[in-house]
Every structure is written in C-alpha cells, then in structure tokens.
Design brief:
mainly alpha; 77% helix; Receptor-associated Protein
C-alpha cells in the first residue's frame, strides 16, 4: 500500500511524500527510521500517486541556476580554506537557502561521501547540475591536494561565464524587442485587418490586389493548417535533438555555429578565452600539459575545438613544442601561438595563457557592445521588407476602393 505523509526531520524541515508499507503502523516505523516525525499519514489516492509521478518527472528537467552554483562554490572554497572537513562543509551547505533541486543534490552527495565515495565521484553522479569542467577540476584538486585553490578558480570561471551571458542578453534585448513587435504587428494585421477587405471587395464585385491576396492566402494557410505546422515543428525539433546527440551531427552543428556571420566570430572568441584560461589554471596548479589538454578538450562545449585540442595534444606528446602545435591549427589565431611561444621561452606559460584569455575577454566585451550595431542592418532590411509587404497589402485595396467609389 502507498501512504501520503507530512512530517519534519531533525533539522525541523517539513517533509512531504509517499511511502510504501503494508499498513499505517509499518509506514510510521519506516518514517521514524528515516529520521522523519510524521504529522499525519493517510492512504494515497490515485490523484496523489499521479501527482507524485508528474512531479518526479518534472524534477528531472529542473535546472540549478548558474548564480546559485557560484554561491555554492564560493562558500565551499571559503569553508575548506578555513580547515573545515569536506563532509562537515557539505552538511552545513545543505541547510543553506538553496533551491529544492540544489538541496536534494547536496543531500545525495553527503550520503555518498558518508559511505566513503570520493568527492569527485559523488559529484559526477549529478551531471545535470555540475559540468564536466566542474567535476574534472574537483578531481584535479583532490589528487593534487589543492582543492581550495581549484574551487576558487572554478568560481572565477563560472562568474566569467555568467557575466558573458548577461552581457549577451543585454546586447540582444533590442533586436528581440524589434522582431517581437514585427511579428505581433504582422499577426494583428493578418488576423483582423486584411480579411475585412475580402468581404468589402466581394460586395463591390472587384478583385483584390495581388499583395492583399498573398497576405490572405498566408492567413488562410495558418488558420487551416496550424496543426500541420505545429506537428512539423515538434517532429523537426525532436529529429534535430536526436541528430545533435549523434557524434557526426554534434560536430557538424558546432562547425556551422562557428561559421554564422557575426555570432560565429563572437562564439569563437568565447571558446578561445575559455580554453586559454582553463589551460593556464590547470598548468599553474601543477597538472601536466598533456593531462591539461585532455581536461580542457572535454569542457570546451564545441566538438570542433575539442578535436583540434586533441590533435595539438598528440603533437605535443610526440615531442613538438606547444606553440608550433597551436600555430599549425586553423582554429587558433597567430596571437595565441605567439604568446604561448613567449611563455615557453620565459618559463611563464601560465601567465601568457592568462594574458591571451584576458585579450579575448576584451575582444568578447567589444563584440558584445557592438552586437546591436552589427545586427541593425539586418533588422533594417527585415523591418523594411515587412513594412513594404504590409503597406502594399493594406493600402492598395484602399486605393482601389476609392477608385471604385469614384
């Protein structure tokens, strides 16, 4: 039998859920064994079971915000630097004001560590919350005994990513508003204005102008076949996701992403900054350059750049210098290989990698600031085209009506 319950644990947190037992007494014993003092226990209805099933499925799609992950990492790093054991830190963080998803994740990690699971392995079980970069960096920190340093640098990387995302959102706000306004205006005119001319011209016994007919045909098509458009969109989205999940599809999409005008250049600079910064952080932490390439290639987010890093790694492992290996790559500009060459000669490779990352961070900032200006010609053409189509479709029949009245 299944029973609904509500109670509280030792931390005075309210707990609700469903427990399976032969009877209410057994359900009570199970809850007490889990550290939950029940307030009430009742037999679950079909609606309760269905509701729990839906909530469990929705939890799989729940995401932890990047801001929350940054706060967690900063707190983790600060407490660990103070000499507090990892298990105690996580138990404290579990009581903090995090989202239910984050709290549940920390709770599961605590249980794994209590059972003797290594930290990075416990985190690896929650890839929907922690990225490959996060997990690999934790592994490096554990093995190298520099977990506090790694956590601080992880927080820095996450903050940089968040800052870049926010800047892109702000830069694309105006184009989004313009496109939304165009779409809304088009839908209103197509739905309420243009169809009015059909009845008027039918009464007058004259034909509608061609631009107006085209608009009406488009409107009729959307009205009569909206279900087909919706179905094709859903099927197309599913097929695209499946194709993207294949190795060939992911690599091809990543390649096309880098070739998109304006956006592709910006994305490429973001990848270059991320690769150089993480490579510098790993190298500074005492990780071998070969291992660093393996870690960085897994966290680039782009299969084209990932494969290129693996090629560079192979060249370095066969005795080639780092800067000549980068120099031969078509995806890394000359400034990267030149700065790395200077770093190899002076023994300050990590510092030079940081300088390259800073250089591309500045380039990204400039590209984001000028993004709206770069998109303005495209928006201008789009707006002009929409205005011409709508003007011809709306005003031409009005002129014809005036002529007919005369």
């Amino acid at each position: 039998m299944k029973y609904n319950y509500k109670g509280s644990n030792k931390k005075k947190e309210i707990k609700k859920g469903i427990v399976e037992a032969d009877n209410i007494d057994d359900a009570t014993i199970i809850l007490y064994s889990q550290g939950i003092t029940p307030e009430y226990i009742r037999k679950s209805s079909y609606i309760d079971i269905l509701s729990k099933s839906i909530n469990d499925k929705l939890k799989k799609y729940e995401k932890v915000k990047l801001q929350e992950l940054i706060v967690f990492t900063r707190q983790f790093a600060s407490l660990f630097s103070a000499g507090i054991p990892v298990l105690t830190i996580l138990q404290r963080l579990e009581t903090q004001n995090y989202s239910p998803k984050m709290k549940e994740t920390i709770s599961l990690i605590v249980k794994d560590i209590e059972a003797g699971t290594p930290l990075s392995v416990a985190f690896r079980k929650h890839k929907d919350v922690f990225s490959n970069l996060y997990i690999n960096m934790l592994n490096v920190g554990e093995e190298g005994g520099v977990l506090d340093v790694v956590l601080q640098r992880l927080a820095l990387i996450l903050e940089t990513d968040l800052d870049t995302r926010n800047k892109i959102k702000n830069a694309t706000r105006y184009p989004k508003l313009v496109i939304s306004a165009i779409v809304i205006a088009f839908v209103i005119l197509m739905t309420f204005v243009v169809p009015k001319f059909t009845g008027l011209f039918a009464k007058m016994g004259t034909d509608l102008p061609l631009p107006t007919k085209i608009l009406i045909y488009i409107n009729d098509f959307f009205r009569n076949f909206w279900w087909a458009i919706l179905l094709i969109s859903i099927i197309g989205s599913i097929l695209f996701k499946k194709y993207k999940n294949t190795a060939t599809g992911k690599k091809r999409i990543d390649l096309y992403t880098l070739k998109i005008p304006i956006i592709g250049t910006l994305v490429h600079k973001i990848y270059l900054s991320r690769i150089c910064r993480i490579l510098g952080l790993l190298y500074k932490s005492g990780i071998s350059i070969i291992t660093s390439f393996d870690i960085v290639s897994e966290v680039t987010g782009n299969d084209v750049m990932k494969d290129e890093l693996q090629i560079i790694k192979e060249k370095v492992s066969r005795g080639g210098t780092i800067h000549t290996s980068f120099e031969a790559s078509p995806h890394f500009p000359a400034v990267v290989s030149d700065m790395i060459s200077a770093g190899e000669e002076t023994g300050q490779l990590d510092e030079m990698l940081f300088k390259v990352a800073d250089y591309y961070d500045n380039e990204v900032d400039y590209s984001i600031k000028t993004l709206s200006q770069s998109l303005e010609p495209i928006l201008l053409v789009l707006v002009a085209g929409m205005v011409i189509i709508l003007a011809l479709g709306v005003f031409m029949p009005m002129w014809d009506m005036i002529k007919a009245f005369k």
